[in-house]
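hiii, so i know i said id send this last week but things got crazy w the move. better late than never?? heres the sequnce for the chain we talked about at the cafe, plus the structure i predicted for it. fair warning i was half asleep when i ran it
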Amino acid sequence: MAIIGLDIGFGFTKGTNGRDSLVFKSIFGDASDIQYREQMLGTPTIEEHLHVSIDGQDYFVGELAERQSNVRSFTLDQNQFITDFSKVMALTAISNLAERNEPVRVVTGLPISYYRRHRKELKERLKGRFPVTLTDHTGQNLETMVNISHVRVIPQPFGSLFNLMLNEAGEVKEKRFVQEKIGVIDIGFRTSDYTVADKTRYSERGSRTTESGISKAFALIAAKLREATGVNVELYRLYDAVSRGSIKIKGKTIDLKPLTEQAFGRLATSIASEVERLWMDDWDIDILVVTGGGGAVLASYLKPLLQGEVVGIDSPDDARLNNVRGYWKYGTNVWTKEQRAEAAS
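okay and structure toks below
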């Protein structure tokens, strides 16, 4: 039984089978013919060369699309993301993490505010058998069959909670996360998700999705760059530049640190204010869990603004994988129990 945790985010798509993980930008483009395929030095990683054929359509995905495609698709619209992006992103990840024709059970998540509206649609889009062709960096094709037999969709922030709560066998390792009241702040690219789990019970009152994702800060940085240079920098092209602290436009290196300080500080203040308003009646929260790629990026800005015990914000692990690791552990817990029950009956 293969179980895959899958997080299809606006910024990055992440997946894990418990052994290997894959992270790539959630963009795709036309698969143009590459005349010269040799890399100058070294061999590209899987994430650097994602070329797939799905339903007879060739796609460059992630970094390859950004580097090679003439027409690239990227969106921050939830409806469009589900209808036009989710299947391509999911099958790209799963085809690289599962064996050919191997029955795969997938756990994925949706932001709180979109969960009820899109849960059934996402499940239907992902479940089934899908022929996929992978083309490696040398141009060799590998035909595979992605066989998704089961799909579970859960509220997105619970992935990080399960990651803290469960071990690699899907068993409870940290009882405190089962016994106490936990507030989860999951900061993604487009959205931030807030949820409260009181002894693992979901609180509707304390759960919400807002548009306070990292893209809000990136949009401010891009606007300032457009004013200064006249160039419209796509948001997904700011990841590395912001991390590096500078960007080169038309031969001129621009220091991004002052802009980043301003944009991230403003965003962290907005998120802390949302936490304060949303959890006004939940003053008895025991632990705050800050997670998501945005949580790691905003750590130094956000931590001084939050009251109470905060965990996860200083973790050395890649915070973008917190949800998918939790999804995988949750799937291991649920489906291992089902198999035992079936064997015993």
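btw The longest helix spans residues 322-344. thought thatd interest u
miss u guys!!
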